[in-house]
Design a protein that fits this description.
The complex is a heterodimer.
Chain A (H helix, E strand, L loop, with lengths): L11 E5 L19 E9 L10 E8 L5 E9 L4 E9 L4 E5 H7 L34 H13 L17 E10 L22 E9 L7 E6 L1 E3 L10 E3 L28 E7 L7 E8 L24 E6 L4 E5 L16 E5 L15 E7 L4 E9 L3 E6 L1 E2 L22
Parallel strand pairs in A: 1-11
Antiparallel strand pairs in A: 2-7, 2-10, 3-6, 3-8, 4-5, 4-7, 8-9, 12-17, 12-20, 13-16, 13-18, 14-15, 14-17, 18-19
Chain B lengths: L2 E5 L19 E10 L8 E9 L5 E9 L4 E9 L4 E5 H7 L18 H12 L18 E11 L22 E9 L7 E6 L1 E3 L10 E3 L31 E7 L6 E9 L9 H8 L9 E6 L4 E5 L14 E5 L15 E7 L16 E9 L3 E6 L1 E2 L23
Parallel strand pairs in B: 1-11
Antiparallel strand pairs in B: 2-7, 2-10, 3-6, 3-8, 4-5, 4-7, 8-9, 12-17, 12-20, 13-16, 13-18, 14-15, 14-17, 18-19
The chains are: A mainly beta, B mainly beta.
Chain lengths: ~425, ~400
């Protein structure tokens, strides 16, 4: 259950130069060790037995010889931070978590274990404030509340406001950050930025399973989104200058030091392939993570992450295999009621949904869709066919998170700015 | 005729980064393909890849299929109109000779591959033999499975020149506009019934843009096509301007006979043959235990218990080595054994540097790429790229060095 931390961290306001050699000052998101990992979408059938339940499994690896602490935060699909726990990773550790286990038992691994022969002792990370890490276990009433928020969007923390969308499965996203202690602070608290570390040492992947032999019987997987701290290294709570003009945690960071997290920003324009229909009964879903618009200071804020003009999508254009374009666009029209196409902070939407432009009348069942999601985002294409084949891979980004927005009439690769 | 002028880059789209990211690129690499050319389509394993032109201008993409010993065996061009997407099922290419038809002027290429040529191509990719090479093996033998890798480059014409030829670099363009993905589908309901997919490897030209054949300064210390680029008549070793690939990876594994869990690594490695290689060189050099050795491999289980090998100068021959492309189970003896802890999962550190080669333009590490494929219970399968622990501009660590992320050098 969410803990309300009201203490404000003592963030050093001094701009100091980066004391690091591991700094390529690039906005490009690659699959390289990072300080934050994003699981952009999870879906878990918490009301079904493990043999039939859809679930999401993710793994986190510490690629360094130093011990690291990774703070795992589960968010609802309206970007409400629901629960968190810590993984104490000894040097070269790997930990896998099945979210079905976490969300049905309220427990997860993460205890401090003895280091291996090539790992350094568990108390040598100079940036750790503490290595006291208890095994994570949620009391039953708190677990029930977590389940309620992730499935119905309602919970004790926000009894009269939607903190998530309603669906039978638990749906949301996960962030995993290197931190300096096994505290329970959330990223939407300013105190979090007194704990956040900057070591690009974590890697990870995730798999989505649908074991139901009737409606699923397949799995797909992808790397987690690897978000680096640039420059990297150094202790928590120090406001080191970064060349980024915005950062991943931008909307939560203290206003006196908005880029204190130093995390790479995500891009907003994507090219995502689809195949839909045809003899193979193909389906494509886009799993879309979007930066919420609300800093989430009050319960009433979370619905802003789905409703209204601020959550509008800028432009989608579908190209079939003969390059025939079809469009759907949010436009601002004076004195005319406006219907916005919106998506919440995280969603899985079939490409046959009305939110995307329709198929052309060429008869083509495949092609790609240009997505201008307005805000920093991430898109994964998940395809399945014949009830037995499934693949998932990240959509291509058409620029990095430092690229300026392009005029809507120009679809194509953007300038990959080096910050 | 290569223009000998070293010009500054006339481009605004240049982030001078060695990092391989999923951004539109000038070269796409399909690091491994497998096609069962001996079975009917309904039950055959195949690899399907898709190439998208994300720009509104038309582009020509040259697809080159290479054997698993890096012998270039077939090429064809895709004329991509603005915003085009073309899917290529390699089963169709290798069994029916079907390549996507293009219908524009000088690019009236495509159409069926003549049957005699197709036989040669299949022979090269399945048993490693082509008529012109006599008894020299230019690929491994894997019976009905055609195995190799593919490169896809933006070029200026629908010519049929291969990347191994210096003339190729008169045709190669530099526009970072292509994206793509691939799927490996095993339709056999008994042995397979699985599919796995991943993005192609997106290799950008830095700086991007400009005409073919122009030697433009790049900050990259060496490039993807380094061993094939022209060194004479005004050429330049870095003239392709393609980002180099890394050499050090972290790849996760899970393996358990009881749970039916398997992991295999699809490993692409830069060979050591250049454009003047003879037929015999492909086997003798691209699978040589010294020239294609692995530097180090270390397995960490879920309790961080390490087990590994390091190949320093005096380690006993034959060294662990791998050809330019292969799929290798993580349980294979090439990799360190599972620890005795009983852990069935963990990750493997792979330093795939071959130690360099005289065909490379400088003393440098070799380039590599690793994809992790996991399967379970004959019904689940996933594939994704392993994590590079540093980019291609970062020198590979020596055997026995501290394992960890490397400095991601900006060129």
């Amino acid at each position: 259950m969410r803990h309300t931390i009201i203490a404000i961290a003592l963030l050093c306001a001094v701009d100091v130069s980066a004391a690091t050699t591991y700094n390529d000052d690039s906005c490009d998101i690659g699959v390289t060790p990072a300080a934050t990992l994003l699981l952009p979408y999870f879906e878990v059938d918490i009301d079904k037995p493990p043999k039939l339940a859809r679930t999401t499994i993710f793994s986190v690896v510490n690629t360094s010889q130093y011990p690291q602490i990774a703070r795992v935060t589960l968010w609802s699909d309206l970007a409400f931070p629901v629960m968190n726990f810590n993984l104490f990773l000894t040097g070269y550790d790997v930990q896998s978590l099945n979210l079905h286990d976490v969300l049905t038992t309220g427990a997860a691994a993460g205890m401090l274990t003895a280091p291996g022969d090539r790992s350094l002792p568990n108390d040598v990370n100079p940036n750790h404030a503490s290595t006291l890490c208890d095994r994570f276990a949620l009391p039953p009433d708190v677990l029930a509340d977590v389940q309620a928020i992730l499935t119905t969007g309602r919970g004790a923390a926000c009894p009269s406001d939607q903190a998530g969308m309603a669906h039978t499965a638990a749906i949301g996203y996960v962030t995993i950050d290197v931190v300096n202690s096994c505290n329970v602070t959330f990223p939407d608290s300013e105190a979090y930025y007194g704990e956040l570390l900057y070591d690009n040492v974590l890697i990870g992947d995730y798999e989505q399973f649908n074991p139901d032999p009737v409606i699923g019987n397949f799995a797909s997987g992808s790397p987690l989104v690897h978000i680096r701290a640039i420059p990297e290294g150094g202790p928590a709570g120090v406001n080191v200058a970064t060349n980024f003009r915005r950062t991943f945690y931008d909307r939560y960071t203290p206003r006196v030091s908005p880029h204190v997290d130093r995390r790479q920003p995500l891009p907003s324009a994507f090219a995502a392939r689809f195949v839909q229909g045809g003899k193979g009964a193909f389906n494509t879903n886009f799993q879309i993570w979007r930066e919420g618009l609300s800093g989430g200071r009050t319960c009433a804020d979370y619905k802003k992450n789905y409703l209204g003009s601020a959550a509008a999508l800028r432009e989608f254009v579908r190209f079939d295999e003969h390059e025939n374009p079809t469009i759907r666009m949010s436009t601002v029209r004076i004195l005319v009621p406006i219907t916005y196409s919106t998506l919440p902070a995280v969603s899985s939407t079939a490409t046959s949904s009305g939110i995307f432009p329709p198929l052309s009348n060429s008869g083509d069942v495949g092609g790609w869709i240009f997505l201008d999601l307005t805000n920093p985002a991430w898109v994964t294409s998940s395809m399945n066919a014949e009830g037995r084949f499934a693949v998932a891979f990240d959509a291509q980004t058409l620029g990095n998170g430092c690229s300026p927005s392009a005029p809507s009439e120009t679809i194509g690769p953007r300038v990959n700015t080096t910050p | 005729m290569l223009c000998a002028v070293a010009a500054d880059a006339a481009t605004t789209r240049n982030d001078d980064s060695c990092d391989i990211a999923m951004l539109p690129a000038a070269t796409l690499l399909l690091p491994y393909f497998v096609v069962d050319v001996g079975s009917p389509a309904a039950g055959a394993k195949t690899t399907i890849f898709t190439v998208i032109n994300t720009s509104r201008e038309p582009r020509i993409a040259r697809v080159t299929l290479w054997t698993d010993l890096a012998f270039p065996v077939l090429n064809f061009s895709l004329l991509l109109t603005g915003y085009d997407a073309q899917a290529v099922n390699l089963y169709d290419v290798l069994t029916r000779g079907t390549v996507p038809q293009t219908l524009s002027g000088e690019c009236e290429a495509g159409g069926p591959i003549p049957s005699n040529v197709l036989d040669e191509v299949r022979g090269a990719l399945t048993v490693g033999r082509v008529t012109n090479c006599g008894s020299g093996a230019i690929g491994f033998t894997h019976f009905v499975d055609a195995i190799g890798y593919a490169t896809i480059d933006v070029v200026k014409s629908c010519d049929a020149v291969f990347p191994t030829s210096e003339r190729y670099y008169d045709e190669l363009l530099y526009d970072n506009v292509l994206t793509g993905d691939y799927e490996i589908v095993d339709r056999n309901p008994i042995a397979g019934n699985l599919a796995a997919g991943s993005p192609l490897v997106h290799i950008r030209a830095i700086p991007d843009g400009g005409p073919a054949g122009l030697v433009t300064r790049t900050s990259l210390p060496y490039t993807f096509y380094d061993r094939y680029t022209p060194r004479t008549y005004g050429g330049s070793a870095t003239m392709d301007r393609r980002q180099p690939l890394p050499s050090v990876f972290a790849a996760r594994f899970i393996e358990s006979e009881a749970g039916g869990l398997d992991t295999s690594f699809q490993i692409w490695r830069e060979g050591v043959t250049n454009g003047s290689a003879s037929c015999r060189d492909y086997y003798d050099r691209n699978y040589h235990y010294l020239q294609m050795k692995l530097t180090e491999s270390e397995r960490f289980d879920e309790h961080e218990n390490p087990s590994g090998f390091r190949c320093r100068a005096l380690c006993p021959a034959p060294y662990p080595h791998l050809p330019p492309t292969s799929t290798v189970p993580s349980s294979y003896a090439l990799f360190p054994l599972l620890s005795v802890s009983g852990g069935i999962g963990g990750w493997i550190y792979l330093n795939l540097d071959n130690g360099g080669s005289g065909t490379y333009s400088s003393a440098r590490h070799s380039q590599n790429w690793v994809v992790v494929t996991m399967s379970a219970e004959g019904r689940y399968s996933t594939a994704y790229d392993a994590t590079a622990l540093a980019n291609g501009c970062t020198p590979a660590p020596a055997a026995g060095a501290t394992i960890g992320p490397g400095p991601n050098s900006t060129p």
